[in-house]
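Continuing the series of single-chain predictions for the mutant panel. This is the parent chain; the variants come on the following pages.
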Amino acid sequence: MTHIAPAAARTLTLQFADNHLLQMLLGDHDRHLARVEQALGVRVSCRGNRVAIAGERGPVEAAAATFTALWQRLERGEGVGAAEVDAALRLSEPETDPRLPLSDLPAIRTRRGAVGPRSSGQAVYMEALSRAEMVFGVGPAGTGKTYLAVAQAVAMLQAGRVDRIVLSRPAVEAGERLGFLPGDMKDKVDPYLRPLYDALHDMLPADQVLKRLASGEIEVAPLAFMRGRTLAHAFVILDEAQNTSPVQMKMFLTRMGEGTRMVITGDLTQIDLAPGQRSGLADALETLEGLAGIAVVRFGARDVVRHPLVGRIVEAYDQRAAARREHERDARPRGANDGTSA
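Parent structure:
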């Protein structure tokens, strides 16, 4: 692929050498082309092996970056579908400031293939997972916090950099009712750990998951089972951490042993604790953020990689919460709780 110098500040033409790949780039009935036009507000036309992009400079450059990233996928023999187009768009949005060129984004390499970022927040998170001993991933559902942590854990296990993977969640919703559910302890807690199993099965063949679970190389357990243990040479993930208490969180964090990596994920807008009970995740962030060896990555609505509507739903809730806080601040009596005197 070659770039042809723009005829004007708002027009850019890309030239592609392989017409077969170009058709895959544009999609059936040019649906990928239309998606880029809709998302960025540009006009895209194709004549022969050239794609012309017209519009404001920022969106034009973002569209060019999107097509270039997708073309590179096709040249590597990888597929391009709606999800890949949306990912490339998120990573090239004019409003974002990615720290790396799209061609240099990090990837987590497992034996089932490379897992790449689908948003700028995911790129930052993946860098943190590769370098920090303890990572907090905080943000709304659908941002890939748990999925990418499991991918990094599997990659490190397969590379021999850790001896085992430990995945944990608090079973807050069950409470005392857990004892009345049918079956043994595994039957009772497995429903709360299902998302972790799902992520594992995306990274490893089913027979390997079962074999490694049986051998103890992979352990999936509720948070209560962590007490009294020291976890060495392991990759440990605590999911749904917003539903821990401060005491539980401290207990979990202090399980860290030699050669261990820890990832703590959660969403502070989805706390299921009893009213008035403080979240251990919020408490840990206030206490630990800024300490050497600890990375904190915060995701936003623009990092949601599920259905596009999910991102809009998250954003709507965030806006309402912000408006409510603003209203409460305005309604507060002058001088109350703000350090001033009446």
